[in-house]
Amino acid sequence: MKRWMIVGAAALGLCPLLAAHAQPQPQASTPDAASAAMGLKAIDTDGNGAISRAEASAALHQQFAHLDANHDGVISEDEFVTARLAQFDAADTDGNGELTRAELRQRFLALRKH
């Protein structure tokens, strides 16, 4: 069960990229659409409203560098799990070991500010 939670948490790291790609021109009328729009803006560095291969590649390289804590060019299972559990803990604002939609949204918005 914990492994599936880790896999789910790992997928959170890709959510902004996937959501932005799936909805290139979202209506900001729902929280999910607003999150997708923010994800697009985070990756769309030239501001043209689309994610190019170069922008996606840059986002992936940035994520890889973050996960490769010892900078040896590979992401070990320990590095991956440590990074994802830290993200989970940061999002779990009430510390109950579970993430609500509101906690995920709050964490995503906080990350967008950086």
Mean pLDDT: 79
User: So what's the overall shape?
Assistant: flat
Strand content: under 5%
In total, the number of strands is 0
Question: Residue share in helices?
Answer: 55-70%
**Largest sheet, if any?**
none
Order of H and E elements = HHHHH
Q: How many separate helices?
A: 5
- Rg of Cα set: 15 Å
Q: How many distinct domains?
A: 1
Distance between the termini: 32 Å
Outline the structure in words:
The protein has 114 residues and is an all-alpha fold. It has one domain (2-112). 67% of the residues lie in helices and 0% in strands. The chain contains 5 helices and no strands. It has helices at 2-22, 31-43, 53-67, 77-91, 101-112. The longest helix has 21 residues, at 2-22. The termini are far apart. Keywords: Signal. This is EF-hand domain-containing protein.
Summarize the helices and strands and which ones pair or pack.
Layout: H1 2-22, H2 31-43, H3 53-67, H4 77-91, H5 101-112
Helix pairs in contact: 1-2, 1-4, 2-5
Keywords for this structure?
114 residues; mainly alpha; 0% strand; flat
At a glance:
The protein has about 110 residues and is an all-alpha fold. The protein contains 5 helices and no strands.
